[in-house]
Predict the structure.
Amino acid sequence: MKIVHGTYTGNGADDRQITGLGLASKLLFITTDGAAVRWRSSDMTGDYSLRLGGGVSTVTNSIQALLSDGFEVGTATDVNTNGSTYYYLAFEADSAILETGTYTGNGLDNRNITTTNTPIILFVGQGENPGFNMQGAAYRTSTITGDNSFRVDSALGLGANLIQSLGAGSFQVGTDTYVNQDTIAYYWFSFAANADQ
């Protein structure tokens, strides 16, 4: 796995490309002081990215694209205010270690989503959902037991009916709108244990 981190100073210009990372990002995070983390995976298309926190999760004009040697940002204040400092974290790896994907919600309980790895940590974020208050992300680690996982933006602790389990070649979601609202696109990323460690 390759991981690159760095900073850039915002200039407020649309379609701004940050290059020279030395990798083609499969997963990218950007944040700045006082702002929620924005993320984009290689499965996302169009001019939007997601935020890990609550409120409206889908953000347009933020992380607009992942490039072969960097990324492109728009004019959104969370990624490109003139004079502000931004911090990024980019990952490139094969699916045995880092996997990303997408699925469309169907609202059914105990739904299995196929993976190629065995996740030790998994995040699910809600994609475009016009006219609905977007949710933040949910996550689960392999050490959590039972039908439990966390909402990133919640102080409520463990909750049921989100990410219900992690397994070899799949994970299971429940009916909560954070992870499985009918007809809504969801994006996920997972990390697996490194067999070389």
